[in-house]
Fold each of these.
Amino acid sequence: MTLPPDRRPASSEAYWRKNLQYLAILMAVWFGISYGAGILFVEPLNRFRIPGTGFPLGFWFAQQGAIYVFVALIFAYVYLMNRLDREFGVDEDAE
Amino acid sequence: MTVQAWTFTLVGLSFALYIGIAVWSRAHSTKEFYVAGAGVSPLANGMATAADWMSAASFISMAGIISFSGYDGSVYLMGWTGGYVLLALLLAPYLRKFGAYTVPDFVGDRYYSQTARIVAVVCAIFVSFTYVAGQMRGVGIVFSRFLEVPIELGVLIGMGIVFFYAVLGGMKGITYTQVAQYCVLIFAYLVPAIFLSLLITGNVIPQIGFGGMDQASGTFLLDRLNDLHRDLGFAAYTSGEKSTRDIFFITAALMAGTAGLPHVIIRFYTVPKVRDARLSVGYALVFIALLYTAAPAVAVFARTNLLNTVSEQPYSEMPEWFSTWEETGLISFDDLNGDGIIQYVGPRARDAAGAPIENELTIDRDIIVLANPEISGLPNWVIGLVAAGALAAALSTAAGLLLVVSSAVSHDLLKRSFKPDITERGELIAARVSAGLAVGVAGYLGINPPGFVAEVVAFAFGLAAASFFPAIIMGIFSKRMNREGAVLGMIAGITFTAAYIVYFKFINPSANTAEYWWFGISPEGIGTVGMMLNFAVALIVSRFTPPPPAHITDLVERIRVPRGSGEGHGISG
């Protein structure tokens, strides 16, 4: 395999840095919702309820909310990375 | 129609469908056999991944576990879905760009080492067989309970079906059968969930319904359940009993293990592009979330129904399902105080005078999902549907696991290690033969299950978390990571994790309580520590040993950008 002809080292480093930034933000949300809201702070959050329902908030995060947030995170990542790929000209459409 | 007639009809129809798909999607090359020709659409791959992932454990056991442990069951809900975020963000796109056929392929090539490849092959085979034994057992239980055939015959029928489409179609056959199996299993899971939600809360959406009003008592269902639990001496449903630290470590081990399981990872080799791999993980999690968000609702409905039906009721007035499940040994009643009434109570139950009340009823948590439609008096066809769904879940996962075993033998051991000059035709035959043999071994394990199937599941996740997950992550995110670091890291992680689990599960099971665990971490959660150990050992060792050769750092640079994914699958040719 050979390197793609248009791949300039400088731009590929910038691409990777940007990718790592996105990862850091998305992973922070991932950690905050599951390990934070669903586990570490579940008891304080359980003192609150989702209005109009019987769900204690922490319990809801652990058994419902975290899963919805996970789905949203993956689609956010797909959107951000597709945009980034096009910006740096490393997307697969030109192939 | 009777329950049995419905079950025969629905199971028969679904099996006919799987066989039809298998004939239509035969594999003609190793690329089709291993990765379905890398031509699967992201949506189809998402469905196939969901079916591959959701096993007999997800379908049959999970809601039951949550039903009996309340908040503590959240470790499975978050652990088995949060792992997909790791998979999407940290693994799938890069592995697709790398373009291998198997997980040991990546480990062996990235770390330019046959030792690393062999360590990975052994882990992949061990993890997959561990898992598959449970699937075959699940098939046997469903057959014996719903169709009244012996467990052995049930396992044989299941083996026959899997043999047919796995050996004939390889990954291609498996993928399209899994798409069909996903549809069957999700329909079979949601129909009773919706029925129950309507019956109990009047809300058609179970995910919302279990936070709603209990129509019988006029209070919130969760409050009602917490009250019942307190009265009967169980821990509050929405709080649970496990320590926060243990919950944390178990969730982390399940997440990293999910992301490191070979049969899940290889699904993302089957899509055409890197972009498709990312999107496909998203679809997969949507399809998985449909079941995983319904499971805690089913758990609450089932728990309430169960307590209302059995607690303090005369044994002689129990409904018919009670005695059918008693015959299977999954429910047992022992009238300790001889009053003919069922006392189903928790460890903190006290009578009016403050004396402890003894529990008289033992219920296997696995029957919750299977017996739920009967307990709630749902129509017969729903019961038959649940049986077909449970079989779809077990068979789809078994097939995915068997493919990992077969490709580990024919591709990693033969083609890449011991017989590199094997022809394409020869490799395809070897792949089929090893798939066939793997089905045989799996069937044997299903009929003669080692007594420790439940225990070794902790192994599968712990080992995947402590071996593959760190090795792959560092292979992508650290250019400096070298052969020495990765191999010693994997060995340290596996040895530590395996030793801890073996000690507490087999050598000294009586000490398997929180007071003897290291830092209060249970064997289920120890994979997280093994993973951290792997990372630490690998990072330290790699600093004191030679850096990887230039062609490896080039390889890492290449897998970090999507362009050029079409060239993949050529590296390992």
Amino acid sequence: MSRTHVSAVINGEPTDFLCEPQQTLLDVLRDELNLTGSKEGCGSGDCGACSVILDGRLVCSCLMLGVEAEGHTIQTIEGLATGSTLHPVQQKFLEHAALQCGFCTPGLLVATKALLDRNPNPTETEARYWLAGNLCRCTGYDKVIRAVMDAAAVMRGEKSA
Amino acid sequence: MPKVVLSGTAVRRFTGGQTELEVKATTFRRLVLELDQRFPGLGRQVEDGMAIAIDGTIYQDAYNAPLGAESEIYLIPRIAGG
Amino acid sequence: MTFIEKKSKLKVVGTRPIRPDGVEKVTGRAAFGADLAMPGMVFGKVKRSPHAHAKILSIKTEKAQALKGVLAIATTADFPNIPSEEAFVGEGPVNFRDLSRNCMARDKALYDGHAVAAVAATSEAIANAALDLIEVEYQVLPHVIDVEAAMAPDAPLLHDDLFTQGVDPKPTKPSNVAKRVHFELGDVKAGFREAEVLVEGTYATQPVHQAYIEPHACVASWNADGQSHVWTSSQGQFMVRAYCAKLLAMPIANLRVTPAEIGGGFGGKTLVYLEPVALVLSRKAGRPVKMVMSREEEFRGTGPTSGAVVEVKLGAKKDGRITAAQAVLKYQAGAFPGSPIGPGCMTGFAMYDLKNVDITGYDVVSNRPKVAAYRAPGAPIASFAVESAMDELARKLGMDPIALREKNAARDGTKAAYGPTLKDIGYVETLEAAKNHPHYKTKLGPNQGRGVASGFWFNIGGESSAAVHITEDGTVAVVSGNPDIGGSRASLAMMAAEVLGIPVERVRPVVGDTSSIGYSFMTGGSRVTFATGMATVQAAENVVEQLKKRAAMIWEISADAVEWRDGKAYPAGSNAGDFEPLSLEAIAAKSAKTGGPIGSEISINAQGAGPGFGTHICDVEVDKETGYVKILRYTAVQDVGRAIHPSYVEGQVQGGVAQGIGWALNEEYVYDAKGRLENPGFLDYRVPVASDLPMIEAVLVEVPNPKHPFGARGVGEVPIVPPMAAVANAIRDAIGIRMPSLPMSPPKLRAAIDKAAK
């Protein structure tokens, strides 16, 4: 199976990789680039554990082929923190205990960032519907939503971190 | 002498339907040995497949669990969880 | 070791520090089952039966073996033929022969998805292609899935050597009924004669899957001398070690199992599926083998809980006192015996003080995956039936549902329906708290309704090991043997910090592999904070004794003249001497000189786990046109003993409620006429999403469990027990229709609404 050379920008860094035609972007991130933070929960775009941000848009990386990343900008969970400084959404998830097993957490965090980039002042309902594509089996979503609303307030400058 | 009640049925086939037994044993370990002596095979079944509730406290795998003469003693199916 | 401090004196226990493994999890660094890569690693895949019931006549692997990149193929021939042996090494009685045949079918495929062969190849794509080249010849047999159909005398039989246990005289003909259990108290016939009001109902549930978001995943490395290493996402590394050793006839110490971080379990990861297969492939290929299940494989090939039929009959006096309670429970076990029928029978009526009870249960095999444990196994099904019946009883009596339960509540000293006396329990407290909660008083609108339901779970103790080590700079390492599925690691660090009297940030917990810490029974049964917590506290107390001895040595006084307080050694009283207190750091710095490393490892078999009770209030709104049920508000009250880390206790309650709501409203296994699963994916197996649920208020009531040093009792399982009935009772309240069958999905609501309108 011949492999294609792909160039993309991943978490702000120009990145090159080789991949086979049938490999998804998720496969590439995890198996070729060792970015194992994005997870496979279903492989069919139903659980959101593989969420990444592609050119500013939230997508399931399991639904995209690696070759399709050519020329695009991708942000994964590994790019959320700045060096050792956590992003407000990461910090708030910790403070609110918005994770238990932590498997869906990367996807939820990326999806939350995508939400707040687009709508810095979501209502609880808007947050719930936006995050409906991220399945969590542990938390019942209560503390997740609280963390999202709190992070939004911090990012709007309405309260200190 | 302690009185032991067998709860649930799986073990009653060993005792011919009897569910309440008076025993001499003073610990769970001795109970298992005594039951096996009186009803061959029952001891192993109790040891492996059941828990013992002594005065309301449930013990699983506790040879030393003491059986008092006046204790309320029930043998119930083992409990696990998920 | 009982020292239940007054809450006000506790400095760490009861607070909400950030969990020690949290940053790893929010940055994507934490390593889960599929995240490990080993040098030389290849990939394993499983071939699965497309038939619900079939004899396997032959398996031809030559074409697959010839495919470039295929390194090994495994079938039943590669597994020892284990004799039937009932043992209790794990969750419920385990028959290792059945477990072996579940991991790899022997002569029959017993469900759609049953593993029949496996391949290891240099890439996943090649492994998948090889699966298609394996030729399996099946003789398709008639199948049966539904529990009552499987009990019928002319039902297709799964096992010709299965004779119903618990029936007298012993049957001569094989059956799909593996076991009959029976519990009784008092005289139920007399009780019904005494009754002034009777309620009867038959309730049905469908199989539901634990649906942890992380699929099963492992890497197995078999070395030429038989020593092996397995990295796996599991609820119990020691269980994986024991089961693999048993199934593959290898000495236990030859196998080292490292627990990965686990992405959810809920009982579904308390047994093995891939690990023995991966080890066999690794042995044959001479390379480490990684195996990860797809979501479809999870649904088709791993154990959901039972589908069931439960008949309940209640008799009561007009004042609400229940005079008799009777139930017949029929649970699917899946392909091999072992449904949670025992606990199902024992928990249904456990909330009530009853004099006359009669409970019969049946464990029934049928052609669907072997049942695996799912959070309070057996109890949610039984409670759905009993708590729905209680609701009907309350209506018939014209009584408030909480008042009816208070009238019959089990209290300290009540004899449980399954026998033993209940002690130090908090059921009544949960009813009180529910009754007095503002939720219970709010007004409802049209097509809105409120339901109440209660639940019970035993919680267990069991074998646990933990170690507390003082490092050279006085910070502390805690090692335990239990995978952390809900924040237990944080709680263990907190308990150790409390005993040592130091800030929790100076105590760092890890989960050890099977060679690095003593044996621990798996994480499940709501036992870790209780049992492993107990071991941790004992280890920390031992360390405190050692610290006092070392201080005594430094001060040259007697060890019993030393006190330990707030992380420091103090002379006990002015007679002991005028010494400045010695901090943990100061003593640690001198540890080599005063006797060596300071630490303690404790292994115990913890007894005295206290049972838990919950009472839930659920408000719904029913859209009669679409049959859609919206959860408006949910309050879950639970007796938690003592919340070590309240946020994680609340999290357990909220998570259990969410699963119960999914079970109530949407989740089910849908089979076609050939017995094949039609919805093996998250699109059509509908678990609750964020937009389905409101905030879930968890009210923690604390009636301490005197058997735990801090009063903790298990909390993880109780919350999934009440929701199905709470939702059903709310729907009944909203639109006057009793839904006796789960899930209460829109098509079923619509059909019921149409029927009622006629």
